[in-house]
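Justification of computing resources. Each target in the renewal requires a structure prediction run like the one illustrated here; the chain below, 634 residues long, is used simply to show the kind of job we budget for.
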Amino acid sequence: MALQGPRNRSIAARATLLLSLVIGLIFVAAGVSVYFDIREQTLSQTLVQLDSYSGQVSALQESRFARLGAAHRNARALLLAELASGDSNENARLFNRLFPSDGRGARRSIDLLFDGGQTPFGFVRGVGAFVRAEPDMQEKSLLLAATRVAHAVGEGVRPDLKSLYFFTPDNALIMFAPDRKDQLRFYRKTAPPSLDFQGETFARISTPQANPRRETRCTPLVHILYDRTGRTWTTGCMTPVDVGGRHIGTWGTSLLLEDLLGATELDGPPGADVVLVSTEGMLIRHPRYTRQSRAGAEKLLDLTATRDPALQALWAFVQRHGSAPFVGRARGLHAYVAMRRIPTPGWYVMVMQDESVLRAAATRALIRVGITAALCLVIQAVVVALLLRRYVRQPLKRLAEQTRDLTSRIEPGPVADFDDDLGGDEVQRLAHDFAVMSTRLTEAHEGLERQVAKRTEQLREANAELARLADFDALTSLPNRRRMIRDIEARLASSDASSLYMLLLDIDFFKHVNDTYGHLAGDRLLADVAADARAVLHPDDLFGRIGGEEFMAMIEAESLGEAWERTEHLRETLAGRRRKLDGSSDVAVTVSIGIAAAFPGASFSALYATADAALYDAKRNGRNQCSFGDAVVD
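Resulting structure tokens:
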């Protein structure tokens, strides 16, 4: 048994397939719509989440620097209060005990101050000091007071801040850092007596010239002062101290990069990366590159000099959008980004999520919708097939049998044209029976339809010819006066009138041509002049014959001068051609042209009157010339 093709299937089967296809397409369209809707919702939620997280990171980082600033202000206030008590010889003796000379021209703190022990001002630990020049009485009191304040305030802010130090313009430094692994040996033991750090960034930003507002300022990422290996990176925040308008020193705190990067808030939300970039273009943190902790200079990526395309795009994005908070899609990074600036250090925090993460989330939702739609499609196909079989296929089958019976009655005897191989297609069976009944009627109708079609085509051609004759000149095939009026009025309404010019052309001595060479020669002349003028004019210029030997054109020009040049070129071209009117001798035929410049609100009649008057002047002044007409206002 051969398989039935699509045409031989029952109508119920075909309807089921068709409905399944249509409903399937609807499901596909709905799925696509759902995909984009979910994608937009996911994007919106993601951007809100990224922006919120970047705000949290920025706020948490800034809070560290805010606590640092508060500690510095407290230390400055305590130091000024200590200094207000005045100097004493006891301070000088105590200073000499705690900061003895190292025998090389400098003074350093005794080991007890770092290791821990009792001093005249209580138990002290974690303090190291270096004094380059021999201080006077006043500076000794200042350094002793700074030692007491550094220890007191420093103990109060541990472990949030791991260091607090005070340095003077004379290269004296008191530092509280009990948790430093190097135990401040550089300042207590090995620093050269000639150590001068006034040229370092942390000292420069503390001077009145660099910091006239005398506020807390932070350095960019720099190597720690004593580390010549380039493996320790830090940023320092400095708060200057002035007395009576004189800069006496600066409170400072160094934040090691590894401490900043150890924060858990930098881990980011699921699927997102948290990136830190300094104002100078140093990549502080990027999970997919080097996590910048204890890294040498070769690993702390300089975005301003990197050759990595992804990092170049990152730095370009920061430069382009760093002036304000940003939330949105970063095309060059192929990610969605929320970026904020941490005010005190001037760093940028970016929370980035790759575009593929959003696409994957939307795709997973689409797959769930697709599976549900497929199950619904199978169920509806089964239900539709059962319903169509009962309410469509069986009634059609009975109708086909009745139609066949009726056909056999109209034509007695067996129906020879009936095809038993039509299979299960009830509609084809029914159509076949009706075809046998209607054969003779069809032939008559077809003959009548052929006659009607023939007459209709003849009428259409006649109407087209009438329409052409109504708008075009039969001799020259140019638009006639009626068509020109309509086209020019439309051009005036839709274009800048100040750039439009109407030309009225008249063949000189045309009556003489008709009288001398005959009207057939005159007709040929009209056709030749029309063709030559049309060839000279621009394709978008309007040109037509408005009667007798008169032609009309509407041209565009940027100025009166350009309009005059174009018109003169037209006149010279027509006058320069020799024409054979009698079949032998060459005759020069000239034209006179009147020009009317259009103006805002100009009408056809006003321009025509102006051009006609100008044409009259050209004729009166000797013909074969152009003439500009004065505007006539309706």
